[in-house]
Amino acid sequence: QVQLVESGGGLVQSGGSLRLSCSATGTLFSVYSMDWYRQAPGKQRELVAGSTSGGRLNYTDSVKGRFTISRDNDKNTVYLQMNSLKPEDTAVYYCHFDGVTVQGWRDYWGQGTQVTVSS
To answer: Are the CB atoms for 94 and 112 separated by under 8 Å?
Structure first.
């Protein structure tokens, strides 16, 4: 019923910028977290940026000062503004929501979007 749809990935040169978007379709009565993860080839998926309904924001150290997570709660949408991109940012990026539906608490994942940063 609830699905997350991502967009905004692509190929960019080192130092460039991208903005990722993720929107939930269906009915979410409440959302606790809206997050972005990434997974590079041969590596485990890691949390890049997270946000809570209380406004708490967290970033992995490698992206602090370069990435900004924001959310539009009324639209159940989360964004990731990515500036000063580096080749090591290359990965598949996944959005993730924790929320409550008629089925109770659930978490949801986007389909993933590829971000490739060339040197």
So the answer is: yes
Per-residue pLDDT of the chain (119 residues; tens, 9 = 90+): 899 999 999 999 999 999 999 999 988 888 999 999 999 999 999 999 999 998 999 999 999 999 999 999 999 999 999 999 999 999 999 999 999 988 889 999 999 999 999 99
Judge whether 5 and 22 are in contact, CB under 8 Å: yes
**Residue found by looking up tokens 């997270």 in the block:** 50
Please give the backbone phi and psi of residue 61, each rounded to the nearest 5 degrees, phi first.
Answer: -55, -35
CB atoms within 10 A of CB 8: 16
* CA–CA separation, 97 and 82 (whole Å): 19
Say how far apart CA 11 and CA 16 lie, in whole Å. Answer: 10
Return all residues near 57 (Cβ < 8 A) that are at least 6 apart. 49, 50, 51, 69
